[in-house]
Specification:
- By secondary structure, this protein is of the alpha/beta class.
- It contains 7 helices and 11 strands.
- The chain has a 4-stranded antiparallel beta sheet with strand order 2-3-4-5. A 4-stranded parallel beta sheet has the order 9-8-10-11, sandwiched between helices.
- The longest helix has 18 residues, at about 115-130.
């Protein structure tokens, strides 16, 4: 009598037809044998380097059916070399080789906190230096009316402000309404914190978790995702490292930052 031998081959190793996907930088995949999930940062002959949400790097061989992309088995392949394209900044603008930073304008862009400022600098920093726009942070919006009054916006010194969680009826919304004028523009995104403006897929997570009202949002997120809740600063730096360009950010933030840059650099604020 023939003895039954179970097939213990993992599903991702079985010889089925799977798509080939170029290992482009920023592509988030999982190596199922180890469970390591990360974004492609380098692809060389025969290997691919991934970086997880905490900045840890792992090198894996480019084996057939070796990775999972959005839960589906794929074969990563080395990207084909294409024709040279114009270099672009992280914001998607065409880069200007050798461009020197412009002398700072009188106009400014204010953002709500240090994390906001670091994210804007990482994605739009090259553009802002060419335009001569300085970004500063407020550490909250409660003092915004007095800051705007001291700044005294005018035709030659426009002021743009980016506010977190700017939804109708909120405290932030009422403050924004009070200080908005011809030369002062306050815009915002709907997210509780700037962290949420980073696409979950760029971090290898399905979605940003919901945190019960009354709890510290950053610490609640860290606890839900298994990140260290007592060092949100280090977690943010790990998140920021995963942002390579505008493609890693939600459109609701992209549009607002571009709007502020256009406002401050308009001919009225030159």
């Amino acid at each position: 009598m023939r003895q039954y031998s179970p097939d213990l081959t993992p599903p991702w190793k079985k010889p089925t037809s799977v798509p080939e996907v170029p290992a482009e930088p920023g592509l988030v995949v999982e190596e199922p044998g180890t469970g390591f999930c990360g974004a492609v940062i380098r692809c060389e002959a025969g290997t691919v380097t991934l970086e997880d949400r905490f900045g840890k790097h792992r090198v894996f061989p480019l084996e057939p059916r070796g990775f999972l992309l959005e839960g589906r088995v794929v074969t990563l392949v080395r990207p084909a070399a294409g024709p040279a394209r114009p270099a672009r900044t992280a914001s998607g603008s065409v880069a200007v080789p050798g461009a020197r930073a412009r002398v700072a304008r009188a106009g400014r862009i204010y953002v709500e906190g240090r994390h906001d400022a670091e994210l804007v600098e990482k994605v739009w920093g090259d553009d802002l230096r060419i335009e001569g726009v300085v970004v500063e942070y407020l550490e909250g919006v409660d003092d915004l009316p007095s800051i705007v009054a001291d700044f005294a916006p005018g035709p030659d010194a426009r002021l743009g402000v980016l506010v977190d969680h700017l939804v109708p009826g909120s405290k932030e919304w009422r403050i924004a309404q009070a200080v908005t004028s011809e030369h002062a523009l306050v815009v915002g995104h709907p997210y509780i914190d700037i962290w949420e403006a980073v696409k979950p897929s760029s971090l290898g997570i399905e979605s940003w978790p919901r945190v019960p009202h009354g709890q510290d949002w950053k610490k609640g997120v860290c606890r839900a995702l298994g990140w260290p809740p007592d060092n949100t600063g280090a977690v943010w730096q790990a998140i920021l490292k995963r942002v390579g360009s505008y493609k890693d950010l939600e459109p609701e933030l992209l549009g607002r930052v571009e709007e502020l840059i256009d406002f401050v650099t308009d001919s009225g604020g030159a």
